Amino acid sequence: MTSTFKASVLAVATLAIAGFAPAHAAEAPHWDYEGHGGAAHWAELDPAFKTCSLGKHQSPIDIDTQKVGKAPSAPPLAVNYTGGPATVVNNGHTIQVNLASPGTITLGGVEYKLLQFHFHTPSEEKIDGRDYPLVAHLVHKSAQGQLAVIALLFELGKENTTLKPVFDLLPPNEGASVPLDAGINPVNLLPADRSHYSFAGSLTTPPCSEEVRWQVLKTPVEFSPAQFASFKKLYAMNARPVQPLNGRKVVAGR
């Protein structure tokens, strides 16, 4: 397999994870967050989306902290991100930051490469019934193809300096992209306290594929009202409603 072909495969995979299709798949059904193409109807739009209604481990969820269990003794979430080039993309459903060489996380001895992060408003994940103004989903993939997502919650406060270059460049039109010349190191997005809630879930966009490892960080980070307003101009609401737990366990991790 040539390096060029490998790069092409990775690019297509990254697009699929983000919830949108390559340009040649223009006939793909249109999905959205409201109306006929909204989340309540995703499974009706395409047979490939049936997991959105039939799946039993769907995301997002509302985390009841009174029912969170304790994880077996395990190493803390190991984050090994690196700074480098990035591209800010408006994919028609959100703003996404694609990363060229961003590093990895390690969960349970398995290494996952960070592919991209993107945003939802309000936060798709809830904590004790509360949502936050914004959440970033950092999407990772292991060498075996398993997905793992870190959810980073945002609350209003001071300007987020790490994301300033991103919010200053938000491309207004679907399909548009702009290079982030200064690059970005995703580790600077994360709070110092990496404790989190962990559970088995799914992608939160069609096709709602399951067997995704979720880590919702307990500690939110700040961003400014002006940064929030700039995102809301493009996406006023792009969050899937919370889904039933169906007996799943949520555990606390470090």
Describe this structure in words.
Helix content is 15%, strand content 34%. By secondary structure, the protein is α+β, with helices and mostly antiparallel strands. The chain has one domain (3-21, 56-253): Carbonic Anhydrase II, CATH 3.10.200.10. The strands form 2 sheets. Strands 2, 3, 4, 5, 6, 7, 9, 10, 11, 12, 13, 14 and 15 form a 13-stranded mixed beta sheet that branches. Strands 1-8 form a two-stranded parallel sheet. Residues 1-26 have low confidence and may be disordered.
What is the element layout, followed by pairings?
Blueprint (H helix, E strand, L loop, with lengths): L2 H15 L24 H4 L5 H4 L7 E2 L5 E2 L7 E4 L2 E7 L4 E5 L3 E5 L2 E11 L5 E2 L6 E9 L4 E10 L7 H4 L9 E8 L11 E7 L7 E8 L3 E3 L1 H10 L16 E3 L1
Task: Give me some keywords for this one.
alpha+beta, two-stranded parallel ribbon, 254 residues, 13-stranded mixed sheet, 5 helices, disordered N terminus, single chain, Carbonic Anhydrase II, 15 strands
In CATH, the architecture is: Roll
Rg calc? 17 Å
Helix content bin: 10-25%
Spans with pLDDT under 50 lasting ≥5 residues? 1-26
**C-alpha end-to-end distance:** 39 Å
**What form results from the Cα inertia axes?**
globular
- The CATH homologous superfamily is called Alpha carbonic anhydrase
Provide the CATH top-level class. Alpha Beta
Strand content: 25-35%
Largest sheet: 13 strands, mixed
- What is the residue-averaged pLDDT? 89
Number of strands: 15
Q: What's the helix count? A: 5
For the record, the count of structural domains works out to 1
| Sheet/helix structural class | alpha+beta
